[in-house]
From TrEMBL, chain A:
NCBIfam families (UniProt xref): metW
Name of the protein in question: Methionine biosynthesis protein MetW
Pfam families in the record: MetW
InterPro entries listed in its UniProt record: Methionine_synth_MetW (IPR010743), SAM-dependent_MTases_sf (IPR029063)
UniProtKB/TrEMBL annotation, chain B:
GO biological process: homoserine metabolic process; methionine biosynthetic process
Official protein name in the record: Homoserine O-acetyltransferase
Organism: Desulfosalsimonas propionicica
GO CC terms in record: cytoplasm
Catalytic reactions of this protein: L-homoserine + acetyl-CoA = O-acetyl-L-homoserine + CoA
Cellular compartment(s): Cytoplasm
Residues at the active site: 164 (nucleophile), 330, 363
Length: 215, 394
């Protein structure tokens, strides 16, 4: 895969490469909107973002992005089914209280969803736990156990199993290994669950199966 | 709207400005009102700042709150020490940058700052209208502004912006004239008044009506209902602040004394402040106008526009790109009311941004200098302007 040279964080470069120009994109937990701004300027997408933090929302709007301040779990409900071509949840899944419900909502409002997360199966994480006896602290998971926003620790292998069990389709999957600044990196083809720092998935609803929660 | 006067914070002032007047709807072509009555001739007072592009693509229409006027920025003379009410937002290099945009602000229909209202002379009697003035609505105010825009040769408004009752006009514009609006910023506002807001307005109106000088609205050339109007303003003023703002500003501090007077004089600073605001207000505002405009705000209910079944249907009629901003300490139009609006916009497929600004000054926060608000406004208007340029180039 050819990834354009730019200042965008490496994992976001991978996501950006998957987006069809001119499509409708919503970024959940979009932060200061660097990915959305890139997609708007380079790929002419019609963008929307949801972000909780006021200061980050102001930054997004300053960039000319359409962003709503609010909780992603709540805000996704207001959009009609199929309102977007892509729903992006970048490095936020590990902070979501009810991932299954959120992914369901994402696949309702979007035709496809992109989910990325730090890979807890990385060898560095495994070794830290094994040798130090402490909960691991890595550049991708840089928090202590008492101040981490990450309440769901998962590996690439976990997410694949999750998709299988919950019945959504993984259309594309890329595992990446990035540098310390996350600005450059490479795609990990061999042993991704052991060697990759991030997993990025493009998922969709299974066409032959109605995927609805039973409640 | 409150009494804030803010001198230059950033950028420069638009300098000396002039109030202008536009008169239309001459009989027999009076303007039809929502109430079924007809009104004409109608005069609107307005001001403009900045330069209109040859293709009229850079118009920002500013809509004022309850007791505001057309004087949004600049000074009337060199000796004028009081600038327009949104001096901190409008000017060269400011949030609404007059180096780029042509800004128009008009006084509302029913007002008393140069526009036709109850204190204007009724051509049929040669006397002020008083209570013979017909009821006007937010929709009527917008209809009159549309006539002004046509007079100025403006077909398409780049951005509408207004707070409080100005925000109601913003929303009304977007659904009443969807083809003429590119984008809209609604600050500290609501789709409809809550019982709380109506209640405060009713108490204020009752205060005016209870003043013996009010005389069923027939007081022009006689003693004015100053006490009633002053009390009405005090009530309004309380709703524009917040518990926190009042605690910080006044606490229980006493005014020019060490101990209680054990009289019904002013003891507390907050009492002195309210009396001062009330006294200042009667110098510039007409009591009947206050009655009519508060009623227009109470009647406003965008969710019922053209008998729509839901606010989602209402916003489906609009074409504008929206930005909605609320303030954390606003208890007159709290954030949940803005969220309802945003929710309806989302459901109807509108392009909308929303931000709740942390501010401790209550409802009035939208009038006060706030870098975050300035950045939001600048970013939003600039991006819309850029997008319309792109669209034109396609």
């Amino acid at each position: 895969m050819k990834i354009p040279e730019n200042k965008l964080r490496f994992d976001l470069q991978v996501i950006a490469a998957w987006i069809t120009p001119g499509s409708r994109v919503i970024g959940l937990g979009c932060g200061e909107g660097e990915l959305l701004a890139y997609l708007k300027n380079r790929k002419q997408v019609r963008e929307t973002g949801i972000e909780l933090v006021e200061e980050k929302v102001v930054r997004c709007i300053e960039k000319g992005l359409s962003v709503i301040q609010g909780d992603i779990n709540q805000e996704v409900h207001d959009y009609p089914a199929g309102a977007f071509d892509y729903v992006i949840l970048s490095q936020t899944l590990q902070q979501v209280y009810d991932p299954l419900t959120l992914i369901h909502s994402m696949l309702r409002i979007g035709k496809q969803a992109i989910v990325s997360f730090p890979n807890f199966g990385h060898w560095h994480v495994r070794l830290q736990g094994l040798f130090t006896g402490h909960a691991p602290v890595t550049p991708q998971l840089p928090y202590q156990w008492y101040d981490t926003p990450n309440i769901r620790i998962l590996s690439i292998r976990d997410f694949r199993a999750f998709a299988r069990e919950m019945g959504f389709t993984i259309q594309k999957e890329v595992a990446i290994n990035t540098d310390k600044q996350d600005k450059s990196g490479r795609i990990v083809a061999a042993l991704p669950n052991l060697r990759a720092t991030y997993g990025i998935f493009l998922i969709s609803r299974k066409k032959d199966r109605l995927w609805e929660p039973t409640t | 709207m409150s009494e804030y006067i803010t001198h230059d914070q950033s950028g420069r002032s638009v300098g000396i400005v002039e109030k202008q007047f536009f008169t239309f709807a001459h009989p027999p072509n009076e303007m039809p009102l929502d109430s079924g009555a007809r009104l004409g001739p109608i005069t609107l007072a307005y001001e403009t700042y900045g330069t209109l592009n040859p293709d009229c693509s850079n118009v920002v229409l500013v809509l004022h709150a309850l007791t505001g006027d057309s004087h949004a920025a600049g000074y009337y003379s060199k000796d004028d020490d009081k600038p327009g009410w949104w001096e901190n937002m409008i000017g060269p290099g400011k949030g609404i940058d007059t180096d780029h945009y042509f800004v128009v602000c008009s006084n509302v229909l029913g007002g008393c700052m140069g526009s036709t209202g109850p204190c204007a002379v009724n051509p049929q009697t040669g006397m002020p209208y008083g209570m013979d003035f017909p009821f006007v609505t937010i929709g009527d105010m917008v209809r009159a502004q549309k006539a002004l825009m046509e007079h100025l040769g403006i077909d398409r408004i780049l951005c509408l912006i207004g707070g409080s009752m100005g925000g109601m006009q913003v929303l009304q514009w977007c659904v009443q004239y969807p083809e003429n609006v590119c984008s809209a910023i609604a600050l500290a506002t609501t789709m409809r008044h809550s019982a709380l807001s109506i209640a405060f307005n009713e108490v204020a109106r009752q205060a005016i009506a209870a003043d013996p000088n009010w005389n069923q609205g027939d007081y022009y050339g006689k003693k004015q209902p100053d006490v009633g109007l002053s009390v009405a303003r005090m009530i309004g003023h309380i709703t524009y602040l917040s518990d926190e703002a009042m605690r910080r500003k006044f606490g229980r501090r006493l005014q020019d004394k060490e101990d209680f007077s054990y009289q019904f004089d002013v003891d507390f600073q907050v009492e002195s402040y309210l009396r001062h605001q009330g006294a200042k207000f009667v110098e510039r505002f007409d009591a009947n106008s206050f009655l009519y405009i508060t009623k227009a705000a109470d009647y406003f209910d965008l969710t019922r526009f053209r008998r729509a079944d839901s606010p989602v249907t209402v916003f489906s009629a609009s074409r504008a790109k929206f930005m909605v901003v609320s303030f954390t300490s606003d208890w007159l139009y709290p954030t949940y009311q803005s969220r309802e609006m945003v929710q309806a916009m989302k459901k109807s497929g509108r392009d909308v941004s929303f931000c709740e600004i942390e501010a401790e000054w209550g409802h009035d926060a939208f009038l006060l200098p706030n870098q975050r608000l300035t950045n939001l406004v600048r970013g939003f208007i600039d991006s819309v302007y850029e997008d319309t340029g792109k669209q034109a180039a396609l």
